[in-house]
Amino acid sequence: MKTQSTRPGVLAVCIDNTGYLASLEAGKLYQIVPDTEAAKQGLIRVIDESGEDHGYSADRFFILEVPHALEKALKRIFSSSRQPNGFNQTV
User: Fold this and answer.
1) How would you write 39-78 as a 3-class SS string?
2) pTM value?
3) pLDDT digits (tens, 9 = 90+) for 28-86
4) Fewest beta carbons within 10 Å, which of 7, 52, 54, 78?
5) Which residues, including other chains, have CB under 8 Å from residue 71's CB and lie 6 or more apart?
């Protein structure tokens, strides 16, 4: 990926969790944490399965820009989830 948007309403679907089986699940939706320095290095920072944000190669993800209303709805739906990160739901 060339650059990452840092605006709210941007989510990422993991498409390659090779080497990070405990941290990422392929097909799951992850919340992006804006990090322009990481983006300059081809990385994307997401809240992973640990519940903390970590940087990963951007080519492991497909970026989704979602309407603000959908982002709010997802936060509301997943906030009570047992997942460490409310967004990391299987797509």
Assistant:
1) HHCCEEEEECCCCCEEEEEHHHEEEEECCHHHHHHHHHHH
2) 0.73
3) 999 899 999 999 999 999 999 999 999 999 999 999 988 888 888 877 876 655 455 55
4) 7
5) 8, 9, 11
Is 31 within the bounds of a domain?
yes
- Cα–Cα distance between 75 and 55 in angstroms, integer? 21
Determine the Cα–Cα distance for residues 89 and 62; give it in Å rounded to an integer: 14
Return the bridge partners of 55, or none: 45
CB within 8 Å of 50: residues ≥ 6 apart = 23, 84
